[in-house]
Amino acid sequence: MENRDFLIRLSGARTEILAQCPAERARFQGVGGAILTTSVLAGLSMAFALTTAVGLSVVLAVPAAVLWGLAILSLDRWLVASIPGSGPRRLRIALPRLLLALLLGFVISTPLVLQIFHSEIDAQIVEIQQREAESFAKVQQEGEVGKEVATLRASVTELQSVIDSNGEKVSDPAQDPKLKALTAELAEQQGLKDDYYREWQCQLYGGDGCAKPGNGPLAVDSKANYDKAKNRVDDLTTQIEDRKQQLTSTDAEARESRLAAAKEELPGVRNRLGVALERQADLQEAFDAQNHANNGLLIRLQALNEVSGKDATLNVARLLLFLLFLVIECLPVAVKLMQKEGSYERFARLDDEKRIREARSAQSAPARAPVTGGPPSVAPTRVRRGGRVADGPGADLLDLWERGPRHEYASAPTVVPVEDARETEVVDTQADGDPWPESEPRQDRGIWGIRARPSDREEQDDGEARDLFAEEELAATGDRRAADSGGLRDGKAERPPQSGGHPVFELFPEDE
């Protein structure tokens, strides 16, 4: 029983209302069970996501998963409780809540699907990481560091071969690193030489962007820059020719020169190669660490997409599981929308209306007119309205009047003596004191005016409310006189008798 009551509390139902309609308990137990199921799945989903994608330990993941499950439980409970049982606004209110439930379903179902296919996903992640490693190695070879390493390795090999041959080996000028450096510098200086020459000519003879033509200070500066670049070009050209001669000559002097140059250059080239290799190793180590640690949610989703794209059967199974968890997560809202209005909703509406009437009566009671028509000393101690009896001081007359029909009347009650001196009849009157004509149709009359006649549904609701309130009052006081006089028949309270559409109160002394 306690477990069932717990499910009812999860559904958001009001237990005091549900106690009056026990047949509705099973319906709200089902709603509470759906909410509990979604919250448990949400907690499991968060635990899987934190342990596999984020890499948290179980000790840290479990409390976070419990908190997430409680949050989803509270949210689903609010979504279900905020959807009205009926009415034209029901679908409009439920639509955004249904969309929110779908969003939560997408978020919660994804980690569950990933956990089910974790073995296939892990195998695909290895392939993805291998592809990434091969791609990085290719970038390393074609990148700046890779090219530098390749050039330095070729230089070390070439210099070592010259040393091993005692200078006999003739080097290829196109592969000589020193010759390559001289050639690159020559191309740069040749470009500067050409620029300075055009600038010098512009200063001498005029042109776009030049000042007054002539051999002035600007022309002299341009000529000096040109001469400097020209001398550097000539010097580099000489060095290149000498280097080529040194590399290709076979005489004894050339051999000795090659051998001495190789011995001098080899240590420096090896040092540069070592530095370049260290840089390359650092980059590779950083990539390997990042690639190995790349086991999060994104790569797992990528792996799931790739492996499901290769296998149609796995793709169908993945889709069905995803839809299953999605439907389960949307189940509380869906169950609420599929249910029709029952007795619980009607009792809840009547209870709300009762509370509203009591609040309005409490607010308007000081402004009501006092009960008149009899001396103060004649205060009835028992009031009967139709089949309903109330004990208390004379002020209970007004209280019973206010707690009567839901539709209040146009004026305060007037106490009028009847033939039997031991009873008093209370008749509703208009503002001028005349009884309401019996020929006029009964209308819903409020304290401040006359409103339209209530609908049949409102009259039915009023009757149910009065029956319920009469049973509660009789059970509380233990007074069964109303039942003996016909107020209760077969355990149900009859509606008070009407006289020409006017409610009648009968007052009699306590000794009756």
Automatic annotation (TrEMBL):
Keyword Cell cycle: no
Coiled coil segments of this chain: 179-246
UniProt keyword annotations, A-Z: Coiled coil, Membrane, Transmembrane, Transmembrane helix
Protein's recorded name: Uncharacterized protein DUF4407
Domain of life: Bacteria
Biased composition (Low complexity): 361-370
Pfam families the record matches: DUF4407 (PF14362)
Record has Transit peptide as a keyword: no
Transmembrane segments: 46-73, 94-114
